[in-house]
Write a sequence for this structure.
């Protein structure tokens, strides 16, 4: 689970067209901006991750990837071994019946073995969405600063 955000405008589209000829300028400014933005969001979100065993918090990552004009900042969980349940914690679960994987088997639920159990569901925590809302201004500022530096470098002097 991770969030993706895209920004576009006519001015940005023109700038992107010019930068296709100078991808080293884009990478020079946008890559550090994306790294910083991802780190900022990780710093804001990580302490709010609900903890039972600590696995989700320990596997939480932030990084920037790509080059030239195709750079992406990511915050969340991806790759092998990511905690499957964190999406459920973020968005919640409807009431549902839990059954064992093997037919005729038992499961441990509510302090005893059962053939099946009813889970009442729960509301989503929304910690990722709240964290992004809190850090969005920092992300926008980092990208705006990078864009300004690119424009200054491309300006004819």
């Amino acid at each position: 689970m991770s969030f993706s955000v895209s920004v576009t405008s006519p001015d940005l589209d023109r700038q992107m067209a010019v930068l296709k000829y100078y991808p080293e300028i884009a990478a020079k400014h946008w890559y550090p901006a994306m790294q910083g933005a991802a780190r900022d969001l990780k710093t804001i979100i990580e302490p709010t991750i609900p903890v039972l065993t600590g696995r989700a918090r320990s596997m939480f990552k932030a990084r920037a990837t790509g080059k030239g004009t195709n750079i992406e900042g990511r915050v969340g969980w991806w790759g092998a071994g990511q905690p499957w349940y964190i999406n459920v914690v973020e968005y919640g679960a409807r009431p549902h019946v839990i059954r064992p994987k093997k037919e005729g088997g038992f499961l441990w639920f509510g302090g005893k073995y059962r053939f099946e159990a009813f889970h009442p569901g729960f509301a989503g925590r929304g910690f990722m969405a709240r964290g992004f809302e809190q850090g969005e201004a920092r992300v926008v500022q980092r990208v705006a600063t990078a864009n300004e530096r690119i424009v200054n470098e491309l300006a004819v002097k």
Q: What stands out?
A: Helices lie at 10-19, 23-45, 55-58, 86-91, 127-154. The longest strand covers residues 61-67. The mean pLDDT is 87. Residues 1 and 87 are 6 Å apart (CA to CA).
